[in-house]
Design brief:
Length: 148
């Protein structure tokens, strides 16, 4: 056997052994307990602190906004879709500011005109719709069907 072939075989053998050793070392003990799943995954998920909270927690303090929200077209949209995760804010409202200073970019995530969106979904070209004014200069943020 030529020496370059034997060297190549040795290189592949070393790489293969390194792969097997790394896989054995990095694999969690409970992996494979339930098929291709880590057996301790559920308990690890339960032990984590929640980031997102139920809308009812928001309503406890923000009842005026909730009344506007329920009457508007966004009634099925969770508060955290626009405001982000609210668990920290619910724990200590002074510690975190959940308001979004960039209102227009928040609205644009759903309402900027895109070909992939359904035609019946309200879409706008921001520059044409409001001369690049922020959405809340005309619309009530928690009920955009109302105007100021």
């Amino acid at each position: 056997m030529p020496p370059q072939v034997s060297r190549l075989i040795m290189i592949f053998a070393v790489i293969g052994l390194a792969f097997i050793a790394t896989r054995w070392w990095a694999r969690p003990d409970t992996f494979g307990q339930y098929g291709h799943y880590r057996g301790s995954a559920l308990s690890a998920a339960v032990d984590k602190e929640p980031h997102y909270i139920n809308k009812s927690v928001c309503v406890e303090c923000h009842d005026e906004e909730a009344a506007l929200h329920v009457a508007g077209p966004h009634k099925k949209v969770s508060c955290q879709i626009c405001h982000g995760a609210g668990a920290v804010h619910a724990e200590d409202p002074q510690a975190s500011n959940i308001r979004k200073p960039e209102v227009t970019s928040t609205c644009q995530r759903c309402h900027e005109k895109r070909a992939a969106r359904p035609a019946r979904f309200p879409q706008i070209e921001t520059a044409e719709h409001a001369d690049n004014e922020p959405c809340n200069s005309c619309h009530v943020v928690h009920n955009p069907s109302e105007t100021k």
